[in-house]
Amino acid sequence: MLPMKDFFRSDEIVNLTEEIVYNELQALIGRAEIEFCQCDKCLFDIVCVVLNKIPSLYSSSIADRTYPSAEFKAEYDRLKLLAAEEIPRAIEQIKDRLHH
């Protein structure tokens, strides 16, 4: 069997939760509401903590992402809220255990 990277050569399978978390984290940084280390290591740790706390939402179709059903859109919006709730918690967790 082919290695996973060779088997899934296209970028059709997308974890939208990753996008959501990155976008929500960038928005929080832009608002400068919370003071925290923003080095790559800390940002990666924050993203990993949040991704492990909230459900994944995968899509294998550009059509689903471009023209989402009402159910898909509702799930996407729910995950945005969850990410916005979990990111500050993850920041506090990482602040307590810096890896640099």
TrEMBL record:
Pfam families: ComFB (PF10719). InterPro entries: ComFB. This is Competence protein ComFB. It comes from Maridesulfovibrio salexigens (strain ATCC 14822 / DSM 2638 / NCIMB 8403 / VKM B-1763). The lineage of its organism: Bacteria, Pseudomonadati, Thermodesulfobacteriota, Desulfovibrionia, Desulfovibrionales.
